[in-house]
Amino acid sequence: MKTWLLFADHDLPESPQPPWNAEAIVQDVELTPLVTAMAQGDRFLAEVASRVLLEPLTTIEEIRYRQEVLLDCQRQEAVVRELYDLAVEAITRERKVYGWMSDRNPAAILQRAIEVLEIFVSMLRTLRQIAAEHQGDFESAGFGRFFRMTLDELDDDYFAEIDRHLRRLRFRNGVLISAGLDHGGKVSALVLRRPNQERQSFSDRINSLTHPDPYFRIADRDEAGANALTEMRGRGLNLVADALARSTDHILSFFAMMRLELGFYLGCLNAQHILESKGHPFAFPDPAPAEDDAFSSDGLYDVSLAFVSDDPVTGNDVRADGKPLIMVTGANRGGKSTFLRSVGLAQLMMQAGMFVAAESLSLSVASGLFTHFKREEDESMTSGKFDEELVRMHDIVQHLKPGSIMLFNESFAATNEREGSEIGRQVIHALLDNHIRVVFVTHQYDLAHSFTGNEDTYFLRAERERTFKLIEGEPLPTSYGDDLYQRIFGHDPHTAKDRVDS
C-alpha cells in the first residue's frame, strides 16, 4: 500500500532534507506566520508544513500534480479530514496496545502483533469503505490512484486471508513444533508447524481415541521442565512473531505516511479558511520553466503579514516576464521589504504545490531560493556589519546554481554608497551571467540607476505617499527620508538643524 499524494511515483523521504540556508529563509521571508496558520495549534501539522515548504519541488509536472490533489481536497474537504482522522486513530490505538515485555518474549511479541493487526484490519476496512463510497468524487491523478490501489489491494480475499491467519495465530488448540537433537543431545532445528487438519472429522476424532499419539506430561512441580518447555515454545514462535511484527510495522508506516501527506493538505485548507475569513484573495499559480524568467502577478501580497494583521494588506502588480533582474527602490517604509517577502513566500508556496497570496501569478520554477537581508551588527564585535555581509555572500555563492532566485534587501549598504554600489553591481552582473534571477531592494541610487537602460531589468518604486503599493518606475535620487522625519517629529529636519546650529 502506498499513498503517493505528494509525489507521483514515491513517498515523501523519511528523513527531512531542508536546504542548508533553511534558517535564513525562515527568518528573512518570515515563514513562521504561514506555518502557524497552517498548523492551527497542531504541532504535527506545523512540522509537516514547515518541512514541505522548505523542500520545494523543482519540476512543473510535480507542482501541477500537487495542485490537482489540493483542488480535490478543497472540493471534498470532509472526506479528506475523515481519512486524516482515520490515520491518526490507527496510530493512536497502536501506541496504546500493552507491550512492555514484547522486546524480550517471542510470545509477547506475537500477542501484541495480533492485537495491533486486529486494530489495523478494522481501520483498513473503514478505509476501503470510504474509498468505495467516494472514489468517483475525486478527479486528481493522485487521489484516483490512491483509491484504486485501496480497492484493488484491500479486497474480500485479502481480509479473508488475514482472518484465517489470525485464527491460526491464536493457537487455541496448542502449538505444534517439530524439533531434532544434535550430537550433544540438545534440542535443535525447532520449527513451528501448521496442523495438518485444523478441523478434525468425526472419524479422525474416533481414531484418536483408539490410537492416541504418544505424549508425556511435565509434573506440576517440575519448574526446570516447564521453563525448558517455555523456552522451546518461544524459540518455535520466534520467527512467526517476528514476521507478524514486521507486517504490522509495514501497515503502521502506511498510516503514518497517509497522516503526513494528508496533513500537509489539511494545513493548506486551514490557511485558506483564514484568508477567506479576512477577505484576502488566493489563486493557484501558473509555474513556468526557469529559463523563461517568468514573473507576472496581479495583487501579490505578503501572506504572512495577512495572517498577523487585522488591517488591509496591499498587493502589487508585476509585469516582469523575461526580466531576470527586478530592482526595487523608493520611499523608506514604502513597502519594498514587504514586497520582497511576498516574492519569497510565493516562490516557496508555489513550489510546495500550494495556492499563492495573489489574484493571479505566473512564476518561473527556481532550483533554489536564497536570501541576503541586512542583519544586526555582530554582538561579539569580531567583525563589522560589512564584513559579515561579505562572508554571508561568500557562503551563498558556494551553493548557488543556475535557475536559482536571489533576494537582496538593502545589501552592501554598511559601507559608503560608492563602494557598496560597486560591489552590488559586480555581484548582480555575476549572478545574471550565471542565469540566476535577482530581486534587489536598495536605497542606493548609484547602484539602481546604473541598470537603467538595461533591457533585462524591471524597475519598481515605492511611492512617496507611502501607500505601500509599488509602481513601475525608474529610481529617483531620494528616498524621501525628510517625510518620515516630519511625520515622527512634526517639523522639517533642515529647520531643526538650523535651530540647533544657532
TrEMBL record:
SUPFAM superfamilies: P-loop containing nucleoside triphosphate hydrolases (SSF52540). It comes from the Bacteria. The keyword Amino-acid biosynthesis does not apply. The keyword Nucleus does not apply. Signal peptide: none annotated. Keywords: ATP-binding, DNA-binding, Nucleotide-binding. PANTHER family: DNA MISMATCH REPAIR PROTEIN MSH1, MITOCHONDRIAL (PTHR11361:SF34), DNA MISMATCH REPAIR PROTEIN MUTS FAMILY MEMBER (PTHR11361). This is DNA mismatch repair proteins mutS family domain-containing protein. It comes from Gryllotalpicola reticulitermitis.
